[in-house]
Design goal:
Radius of gyration: 43 Å
Mean pLDDT: 81
Family: Belongs to the V-ATPase 116 kDa subunit family.
Strand content: 5-15%
Largest sheet: 4 strands, antiparallel
GO cellular component, one term: vacuolar proton-transporting V-type ATPase, V0 domain
Function: Essential component of the vacuolar proton pump (V-ATPase), a multimeric enzyme that catalyzes the translocation of protons across the membranes. Required for assembly and activity of the V-ATPase.
Distance between the termini: 31 Å
Helix content: 55-70%
GO molecular function, one term: ATPase binding
Strand order of the largest sheet: 4-7-3-8
Subcellular location: Membrane
Shape: flat
Number of helices: 24
Length: 780
Amino acid sequence: MADRGGCCPPIDLFRSEAMQLVQLIIPMESAHLTASYLGDLGLLQFKDLNSEKSPFQRTYAAQIKRCGEMARKLRFFNEQMLKAGFSTSTKPTTVTDINLDDLEVKLGELEAELVEMNANGEKLQRGYNELLEYKLVLQKAGEFFASARRSATSQQREMVSRQMGDESIETPLLQEQEASTDLSKQVKLGFITGLVPREKSMAFERILFRATRGNVFLKQAPAEDPVTDPVSGEKMEKNVFVVSYSGERAKNKILKICEAFGANRYPFDEDLGKQGLMINEVSGRISELKTTIDAGLLLRDNLLRSIGDQFEQWIIKIQEALQRAAFDSSSQVGAIFQVLHTRESPPTYFRTNKFTSAFQEIVDAYGVAKYQEANPGVYTIVTFPFLFAVMFGDWGHGICLFLATLFFIVREKKLSSQKLGDITEMTFGGRYVILMMSLFSIYTGLVYNEFFSVPFELFGRSAYACRDLSCRDATSVGLIKVRDAYPFGVDPAWHGSRSELPFLNSLKMKMSILLGVAQMNLGIILSYFNATFFSNILNIWFQFIPQIIFLNSLFGYLSLLIIVKWCTGSQADLYHIMIYMFLSPTDELGENQLFPGQKTAQLVLLFLALVSVPWMLLPKPFLLKKQHENRHQGQSYAPLESTDETLLSEANHDSHEEFEFGEVFVHQLIHTIEFVLGAVSNTASYLRLWALSLAHSELSVVFYEKVLLLAWGFNNVIILIIGIIVFIFATVGVLLVMETLSAFLHALRLHWVEFQNKFYEGDGYKFHPFSFALLDDEDD
């Protein structure tokens, strides 16, 4: 047997764990024991060398099927014992000398006997339940007919007494005429009796009436105690019914309706004498069946006790037999463990815990990292919830989100063992992601100074005050600084979107650009640390360096201008500076100048940005061609390593294959254009942080002012209660559910597209170890 697998020692979340491709040759006699050890270890992934064969064509298919059947029988015995309330014996037992063949035969005989007992018991129990229902029908239907006879007798007597009072000469002649007429018009009625589930009785009556157009008579009476249905075996409340009808056509309709409603039908005789005999006969059969069922259950319990006494012994016997087979084989050849060297990419495995696993799943949903590729999951733990919080920033909403997540974390053990719905299970699985999102939302909410859109002076008094009463609650005109700056976050006086100074709006927009440029720079820097990337010096000089220069010559410079403007309090127009940096780079900046030498710095940065484009495009294809030519001249015979997919495939080709310069050049051209255009579009894409934050803030203001404050202004308790209820539902439904989902999806897009496309290929495949622990989790 020659299976190959990969092993994984020490933990490292930034890099996937080290893997080796090995060849493991195990003697056939000890294969089962070795497989057991490897399954407990859980560090080996087997590679199928016979994938073209079906399971039935495998070498050990018959043996595996045989062991699987024995295991199935043991599981069946265990289930039957648990159902009957028995447990396996914990007493120490002496292992009798029995081989696996005899054990297999014995297990088969016991299974057949137990299955036969179960089938006979179910058949007898069904007959017993049918007889109980039949007896109930006989009793209730007998009461129906007895009541009907008494009513008919009393009506006949009343009619006779009335006729006796009105006798005349013509009375006998009329009576004879009526009697002859009645005899000719008599119609024989049929009837059907049975039981119907009480919950379906009303619908049963309506359908009968509609199907027969009212030409039936239905009488129902509830059974006092729940009865066991013979078909389903479940206890349920039922009604006894009698349906009287006329005609074969009506009978067929009634039978079909009874079948559709699960009504059990039983025969019934109008004769009172026969009814009594039937009740006695049914009662006797019920008593006999009860005795037979009790005897069968006693035999079944004895059999299960016997199985329970030997169950653990059989398990031990199988384990000892396997170990003895390995010992008795006395194989002179031990297991052969040999490391193989291959160009095949190993699987990727990051050892995670319950906190980091959800963040790793966010990355893996985009694509599994290649072996030893830099893992974005490390940075996602911080950057993902932070970017979410930038859009969701409100410390009141963050507290609500935190409390909801705390419920899942506190009840973690209980909920993890329960079957949850799809949405609840997804939320529970990402509980620690939501926890981080809520904590960062509280932080950004404190920075924005927003609590359900309301600003508070939490860290001190506002640094600004009105010069006179005319400026209060109007615009920022008239505000003067009367004390030191507000110590943390946005000053309450600048909160909101005043027409003349939308400070918070401007802050969020500029902060989005700063965060976007910082994260894109992080992505480019991480490409430097990729193992395959770092091994190729061409990628460092002609991809990493020009990308850094291009991005920061433009958008890094814009970020610097934003910070300088904040620090100096300048009124310079940054839009004007960036536009005319390209249109008129030699013009004087005038009032838009933020620091000395700014014009010269802009010219240098513009020159570097323009030079970096051909720097990325031209040298690399020509150098690759030169290296290929040198390899053919015998100066080098080592294949060139590269991260680019096209270059990787080219490097793995035979050394005598032609070098497609045009294909390599076009690939590099596409890569350059993609990066240059992507740098612009990705920076603009980060403005969604500003847009979503603004939308969230404005919705909070609308719900607060147009619902809560409006209801408060009516000075009516009922209107106030209604307003509070509407405010709560709007906040939960729109801001805490829909806005959370929206901000989550936008943060996901920023990570997958704007961040990860700078360095992450994500074309690897996961490591799936052979592990008994994982198999048990899947079964659960």
